[in-house]
Specification:
This protein is an alpha/beta fold and 208 residues long. The protein has two domains: 12-173, 2-Layer Sandwich (Beta Polymerase, domain 2), CATH 3.30.460.80; 176-208, no CATH class. The protein contains four helices and eight strands, in the order αββαββββαβαβ. Strands 1-2-5-4-3 form a five-stranded mixed beta sheet. Helix 4 (134-145) links the parallel strand 7 and strand 8 (148-150). It starts with 11 loop residues before the first helix and ends in a 58-residue tail after the last strand.
Amino acid sequence: MSDSAPTDATGGALQAELLRRFPFLSARGGAADGAAAVNVPAEKLPEFAAALRDALGFGVLADIAGFDAGTGAAPRFAAIYHFRNPATGAVLRVAAGANEAVPPATGAAGDVGAAAASEPSPTLPSLAALFPPADWLEREVFDMFGIVFSGHPDLRRLLMWEDYPWHPLRKDFPLAGRETPLPKSDQLPDARTRIQAAPLNGGPFVAG
């Protein structure tokens, strides 16, 4: 039998109860919607998510949003998870900071592949085995922010083409985009398409 979780409208009682039950959590404030919000260490994320589903009735993972706090922040990257309890309507926001490694820069100046390979490589455990919707949600965060979800069954790009070397929602990605070869298999050979800097007409996703 599952333990019941507090369901107050502000989320304060739910947050307090979770902090009491799970000492590895910390409070997360600043939510304008009043939803309960906590921070969880990356290594504890699967354990906590399983407890939410199996013991506390949060059987729905509604969304995963990537977050980039900017260069110099520690951690710089995080994923924000929104869990919902269908029986009570309670919503819980969970933030997990990604572990991050920065590979050494290699290759000559102007080498797109080498430059992309030297970008930060943040990682988090995948929740796809616990919550099936995490499969595509994690793929989108990986595509846009470059967070690698370890244990994901098929971590491929979802929006950009597979060989695209960048992650467009990172804060250091320029609004006008970066000159990048387009995918050969998806483009007509005579089209002579190229990425164009057009920040007021679609930014990095404009090709012409």
